[in-house]
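Researcher: I'd like a candidate sequence for this fold, 177 residues long. If you have to choose between options at a position, lean toward the conservative one.
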């Protein structure tokens, strides 16, 4: 049974508010994977118990990512979960390069509270490849929920609409620059 977007948004907003109150974003990577990422993917319509859909510790091309989101055995989104005291540029560069090498068109990284999204095939350096940055602590939960649904919901990934959304946001950012 597929969730309607309105129901999905309501669930995600409530969940984001709960995460903020419980300060889950301050936990270690294992806790973030379990308490933030998997729960959120579940709200986004992914069957988190199907390792063909949500493939953990996915090895690819001499590297690996925390999760590969897959449709019909094809990786569509690479998702890295990493937490650090400072600086993520090297993580983002590696993630974008790995995704590009594997033909994956959207790559994302989260540290538990912030979500960076990249279009690995976009021309230019790392900053030109970034299409979205969401901050669950600073932005309104309603705004974050809408963007997460557009970029990561299983339905949008399966239909290809997630790429349209990512490219649209990317174009808007490029125009602003």
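Model: Candidate sequence:
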């Amino acid at each position: 049974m597929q969730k309607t977007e309105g129901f999905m948004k309501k669930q995600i907003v409530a969940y984001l508010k709960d995460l903020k109150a419980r300060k889950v974003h301050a936990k270690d990577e294992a806790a973030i994977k379990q308490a933030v990422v998997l729960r959120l993917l579940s709200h986004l319509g992914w069957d988190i118990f199907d390792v063909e859909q949500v493939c953990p510790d996915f090895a690819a091309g001499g590297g690996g990512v925390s999760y590969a989101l897959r449709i019909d055995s094809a990786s569509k989104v690479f998702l890295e979960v990493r937490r650090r005291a400072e600086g993520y540029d090297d993580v983002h560069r590696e993630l974008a390069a790995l995704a590009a090498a594997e033909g994956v068109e959207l790559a994302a990284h989260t540290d538990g509270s912030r979500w960076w999204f990249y279009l690995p095939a976009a021309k230019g350096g790392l900053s030109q490849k970034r299409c979205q940055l969401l901050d669950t602590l600073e932005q309104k939960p309603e705004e974050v929920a809408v963007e997460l649904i557009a970029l990561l919901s299983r339905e949008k990934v399966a239909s290809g609409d997630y790429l349209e959304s990512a490219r649209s946001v990317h174009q808007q950012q490029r125009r602003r620059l």
